Structure formats: C-alpha cells, structure tokens
Amino acid sequence: MSKSEKKKSDRPSKPSAVTAKSRYEVPDDGSFRVKSAPTLPPKKARNDEANEAALQKHIEKLDRLQHILYAHDSHAILLVFQAMDAAGKDSTIRAVLSGVNPAGCVVHAFKRPSQGELDHDFLWRSACRLPERGHIGVFNRSYYEEVLAVKVHPEFLAAQRLPPIDNPERFWAARYESIRDHEKHLARNGTVILKFWLNVSKEEQRQRFLARLNEPEKNWKFETADVAERAHWPEYMAAYEQALNETSRPWAPWYAIPADDKSYMRQMIADIIVQTLESLKLDYPVPGKAEKAQFGVLRKQLEDEGR
Questions:
Q1: Position 128 in a domain
Q2: Is residue 101 a contact partner of residue 227, using CB atoms and an 8 Å limit?
C-alpha cells in the first residue's frame, strides 16, 4: 500500500447523510439564525383541512414503511424533539406516530435527571434508551437539555459533581463535541437521526399558557415554573441557535419547524420522516434458495395435515 493510499484509508469514514429535503433544515455551516427562522408557515399553507389530509397520507405511508423497517432489521430511527414549553411536542408525537405499531416504537420523555443518572456522564441516560435496529425511538427532550436548560441555568451543573470548570467556553465546546461524536457514532452504526426544534413564538406560547389556565380540561398541563422560564427567553434562543449550529450535520440534521400552526407543523414533520424512510430504499427481506426449499417442505407438511 502506498503512503497516499495508507493516509486515505486512515481517514475516518463519514456516515451517510439523511436525504429528506425541507426548507426548514438547519445548514451545517453555522449560518442559522433564530431571528430569521419563521414561527408561522407561508400564508398559503395555513389550511388546517389540507394539512390534516396531508398528515393522514403521511401516516398511512409511515405505517407501511415502519413494517418494512422492522422486518429488515438493519436500521433504527431516532426522532429527537426539543422546544420551549407549550410548543406542542406531546401532541405532535402522538399525532404523527398515531398509525405506527406500538411494538416497533418507544417514546421516552426526559425529565429532571435522577440521582443515579447524575452519577454518570450526561449522555448515559439517553444512551440506555436508544432504539433497537428495526425500531423507531422518540426522545421528548433529550441530551440536548444539557446545552439548553443547563446552559441557561449553569447552577444545575453543581448537582453533576463535575471536575472544576476553569474555562466555561471550553466546557460548552467540549459538550457540543461530545454530542457530535455520539451522533456520528450512532449514524455509522445504522441509527438514522432526525432532530426537530418546534419553533414557537413567545406570543403564541403566552396564548397557549392562557388557554391552559382558562380551560379546566387543560389545567393539568400548566406549571408555574413554565411562566418563570419566559423571563429567560433571550437566553434560550441564544442557546438554541448555538446548539443547532454546532450539531446540525448531514447525518444528524436539525429541522427548525414553525410551531405556531400545529396542523402545518405536524404534517411537515411527518413528511420529513416519510422521506427519510423512503430514502433508505428498504424492502421486505427475500429468503434464500435453501429457505425457499424448506418452505416447500413445510407447506406440504401443513397441507397434508388438513387432509
């Protein structure tokens, strides 16, 4: 092997890129800006009836594609949802995955970490819940809270009992690097990662909080701490902007989806998932010659039993 060939072979291979096309994909060049990201769809797309019809078509396709994914057993799908409170994460996950076989889909909602989880590195608790091959895994919030909520509230780091942080800028840069490395490793090993930031406006969040207070059947959703977090809106937007720029990559892209119109948001997310699954070009496994021959023997045996 020549020196140039050896040098080329030593380069780490890049995982395959996700091929879903969307105007809301966050580029990997660091150019994403929250202030330029829309929270509402184009006016012509604000049609609940049309969006609901599109969503139902996507759900039907997703049902078929999930069966093939499960049968093929070579890839896993990881869907990551991040957003400010009241953006619609729960209802969107429920709506988009309503037609999926529960046996092949697992949803994990990450809350405040337990003491046991705090005794491990920040990626540990989510790594334990990654989807198996053939399955769809959903993270309702995720390890990204460690560069979002924790960055806005660095006092949370005290509970993690980390070594002394001498340089905060270097500390956060290392966390972004850990996330990129983690996702690249997963992608190289067959996990397809799609990350959705549900981009709700501050005014729309205010209206949804009021609805939770004013409608008795929604009171259970309301938490007083959610209103307090509104005071940190600028810090959260800055944290989201940096996190998305630091970690959106072709093999683990972020999509900044307008979240002020729920029907549009849901059908757009479903469309991206369906496009991605279709791009894998999977099909039901085909048995080999030996298996087919055995099928013939077993078929005859079963037919003879009925005589």
A1: yes
A2: no
